[in-house]
Amino acid sequence: MSGLAMSESGLDLSHHLCSEARVRKPNPMKAIWRLTRRKPNMVSLANGDPHFSLYPLRKMEFEVASVAEEDPVASWRLDSKGPSQLLTSTIDGPCALSLKTGLAYSNGAGLPEAQRAITELTNFYHSPPDHMATLTLGNSDGITKCFRLLGEPGDHFLTDEFAFSSVTNAALPQGINWVPVKMDEGGLIPEELENTMANWKPEQGRKPHVLYTVPCGQNPTGSTLSVERRKKIYALAQRFDLIIVEDDPYYFLQYDNNSEKLSADSPFMPSFLSMDVDGRVMRVDSFSKVMAPGMRLGWITSSAAFYEQLVSYTDSSTQHPHGFGQMLITEMLGAHGWGLGGFDKWVRSLRAEYHRRRDFCLELFEREVGATGFASTNPPEAGMFLWVRVNVEKHPRYRCDMRRGDQDGPQTNVAQLMEELFEHCLDDGLVVMPASIFACPVGPKHSDKENPIEDRLHYLRVTFAGTEDVMREGFSILGRVLKQFFTEVQK
Amino acid sequence: MSGLAMSESGLDLSHHLCSEARVRKPNPMKAIWRLTRRKPNMVSLANGDPHFSLYPLRKMEFEVASVAEEDPVASWRLDSKGPSQLLTSTIDGPCALSLKTGLAYSNGAGLPEAQRAITELTNFYHSPPDHMATLTLGNSDGITKCFRLLGEPGDHFLTDEFAFSSVTNAALPQGINWVPVKMDEGGLIPEELENTMANWKPEQGRKPHVLYTVPCGQNPTGSTLSVERRKKIYALAQRFDLIIVEDDPYYFLQYDNNSEKLSADSPFMPSFLSMDVDGRVMRVDSFSKVMAPGMRLGWITSSAAFYEQLVSYTDSSTQHPHGFGQMLITEMLGAHGWGLGGFDKWVRSLRAEYHRRRDFCLELFEREVGATGFASTNPPEAGMFLWVRVNVEKHPRYRCDMRRGDQDGPQTNVAQLMEELFEHCLDDGLVVMPASIFACPVGPKHSDKENPIEDRLHYLRVTFAGTEDVMREGFSILGRVLKQFFTEVQK
C-alpha cells in the first residue's frame, strides 16, 4: 500500500484520493537527490545544485520581539524601541538551520530541521495520535493542495453554509460541488450534517466524502464549535467515512466564553486533529495570524499516507517552501530563539491583545450600532470577526411574500436590501464585508429551494483586527448609515 | 474580452486556455482588498489583516556580496570575510519595501514594488514588446501554473525529447500527453517540430498547442538553441498557433561558442520573449541559479491577458510569494542595494565563474574519460551540464539486431547496457544521471516505433556545479568504471 492512503490505524483511506493523486509518480530527480544525501560518501556529479559558496548571501538576521516580558505583545506594540532579540542564520552555522542548507534545494515536506520544530509545536498543542507535518506556503496553499488530492471533477464537498469565498471559489474550476451545511451561532450544526449525509440520494451524485470547516472563529461568522459539537462531527465523519479538512488559522486567538473568563492559563479547545484516531483529519495551520501573513508559511498535519501524497504533489508543483521562513521558524523555535515556551507566551499574550480588541469592539458596537436597534451581534469566542445581524425585518421596504404559489426562490427581499445597505456604507466611506460574498456557492442539484440562503443574507462581517481609531470611525459610520437606511432619510 | 487571453497585438489567444481557467472567477475578497487600497480615505472594517504592530518582527537584514570588486564572484568565493554589503528592511521604512508592506497580504502578482523591480530587470535583458511580470515561487511553480492554465485533460504538449523529468512527470496526472521533438547537439530541431505539426492526424487527438522548451543549457543535454533556430521555432509557433513556455533558468550562464571567446561584455542570446510580437510566449525565470535555490522566487513574463489568468490562479491557489524574497530582491535591485548595474555585474562574474568550471570540467573529462575512447562530449554553451555520449557500440555485448521482422521496439540493447553502467558507477561510489530518467514520457499513440528513444539512451548527464575536488574524484571514478565495463573486467 506504500504511497496510497493506509492510515496508521490500519484503516484504508485510499478511496478518498482523486485519480490525479493515484497516478502521480514520485519525482525521480528527488529519488536521486535523496540517494546522494543519504550516502554522504557518494561522489555526486548528479544534481545541478549551485554550490553555497556562490550564494551572494552570508548572513540573515531578524530583529524579533523579546518574550522576556510578562505581556510581550503589549510591550512590543507600545514601544517601538523596546526590548528585542536577534535571530541570526549564517552561511555555515553555528545556528539552528544554516543558509548553506536552508537556501539549497530540499524536498516537498520542508527541511528536516524545520519539520522537527513544527512537529514539536503541533505535539505541544494537539498531541495527535500518529501524524506527520508537511510544510506549506500558507493556508491557501495547504487547503487547495488537500482539495487537489481529494477532489475528483463532479465530487461533492461539505462545508459551512457561510464560508471563506476565496477557498470555496478556488475549488469550483476543479469541478468540486459544494454542499453547504446549515449553521447557527455555534457554527456548523451536527444534526444538519447528519441529515445531509443520511438522506443523500444516488441521483445527487457521489456521496460527499470531504468536510472542509473552520472550527475556531469561523470566517465569516466568527463562530466556534464546542467540544461536544466537535465530538459529534468526528463521530459522523467516522460513520459516513468523511475526511475532515480542518482549517484553523485562528486557533491561537481563542477568548473567553460564557462559562469562563480568559486568563493566560486558559486552555485551547481540542482540535479535530487531537481526536483523530482514524487518520481522517488533515489539519491546516498557518503563521499568518500569529506572526505575519506575508511570511507565506504554514503546515498540514496528516496521517502518514496522506503525508506521502502531499509531499509528492508539492515536489511536482510549488516545490518546498522558501528557506527564509524555514530558517526563521527553526531559529525562533530553537534553543537560541524563543523556544516553544516563548512561542506559547507570545501567542497567549497575542490572544489577550485580540481579546482586548474584541471587547473594545463589542462595547463600541453596542454604543454606536446596537443602540440603533437595527443590528445586533454575539461576542465571538475566537478569531477576528463580528458577524453582525442586521434586523432587516424592520426596514419599511422589507417583504417576506416574494414567493408566489409553488414558485421557487427567496421568500424575502433581504438580498436586495443588504446590497443597498452595502452601497450606502461605501458612499459614506466605509467598507464592510456583506454576507452575500460568503454564501457558499451551490450547484443546481443541491440548492435548498425551501429555505434558500438568499433569505439569510442579513449579516455583515466586520473585523476587530484594525486599530481603535479605525473601529471608532467605522462603527460611527455604520450606526449613522443604518439609521438613515432604516428610516429612509435622504442625505 | 477582459479576463480572457486577448494579446496586446490584438490576436485572440483565448482558445489556448483550458476549461478550468475559463470558469475561474476573480477572487471576490481580493476585489474588496483592492478597493480598500485604492481609496486610502476609506475606513475599512473588511479585511482580517493583522496590524503590522503585532508582527513580532521589526527588522530584517541580509549580508550580501559586495559588487564593487572587478570580479565580485571570485572575490566573494575566495574570502569568506571579504567585502560585503548590508541590505536592511525595517518595519516602517525608510527602505525599498518595508516589513509593514512586505509582510502583509498582497495580490497574486506580488507587491507593486517587487513587480516593478522585476519588470525593469526583464526590460533590461529582453525588452519584450508588451508584457507583464507575475512573481512565482520559483520555476517549478511557474511552469506547473502555465500547464494548469493551458492544459486540458487529453491535450498534447510538445517538448524536447530529453527533458527535465520533474516537469514532464508533473504534467501527466493532469492528463497532458507529451509529444517529444527530436534533438541534436544544437537542441530541438525546428524541422522535426515542423514535421510533427504538419503531419498531425485528427485521430491523434487535439493538435498540440503548447511547446515547453529550455532554450539555454537545456536540462539535461546542455544544448543551446542558436538565434537562427529560435527564429525558425517562433515562426513555426506563429504558423501552427503554439504557445511557447520558455523555461530559462540558465539564461545568465551563457559561455563562449565556436565563433567568439567569452568576455564580460559578451551579449546574452535573444530570448523567445524578446521576439514575441504576438503575446504567445510565457517566459519563466528564476533566481535559483544566480542567487540560491532555497529562495523559491521567480517570475513569469507574459502578455497582459495571460498575466490576468496567472494572477487569478495564484490568488486561488498558492497566493502571492513570501515577503522575505520580495523585500530582499526589491532592496537588492534598488538604489541602496546592487542596483540593476550591480546585478548585471554579479551575473556576468558568475557566468565567468561557471565558464571556468566548465573548462576545468572539460579538461578533466578529456583526460580521465575521453581518453578511454569509451565516451565523448560537446562543450556546452550554457548551463551546468555536460551531456556525455557513451560509445556503447564498442561494448562487447552491444547488439543492434534486437528487432525481428516487423516487430516493434528497440533495435539495440543500449537501455540495458546503460542501466548496467549506472549500477557500476553506484557500486564504485559515483552518482550520475542516466539519460533514461530524462526520456520524455510518451503516450502509446505517439511513440516512435521506427526510431524509439530506447536506442538513444547512451548518454549520462554530469554537472560542473560542484567543487573541483568532487569533479576530480568523480571523473576519475567514471573513467575507471568505463574501462572496466567496456573490457568486462571483474573487480
Automatic annotation (TrEMBL), chains A, B:
Pfam families: Aminotran_1_2. The keyword Transferase applies. Gene3D superfamilies: Type I PLP-dependent aspartate aminotransferase-like (Major domain). Residues 96-473 form the Aminotransferase class I/classII large domain. CDD domains: AAT_like. InterPro entries: Aminotransferase_I/II_large, Class-I_PLP-dep_aminotransf, PyrdxlP-dep_Trfase, PyrdxlP-dep_Trfase_major. GO terms for biological process: aromatic amino acid family catabolic process; lysine biosynthetic process via aminoadipic acid; tyrosine biosynthetic process. GO terms for molecular function: 2-aminoadipate transaminase activity; aromatic-amino-acid transaminase activity; pyridoxal phosphate binding. Keywords: Aminotransferase, Pyridoxal phosphate, Transferase. Its cofactor is pyridoxal 5'-phosphate. Belongs to the class-I pyridoxal-phosphate-dependent aminotransferase family. This is PLP-dependent transferase. It comes from Obba rivulosa.
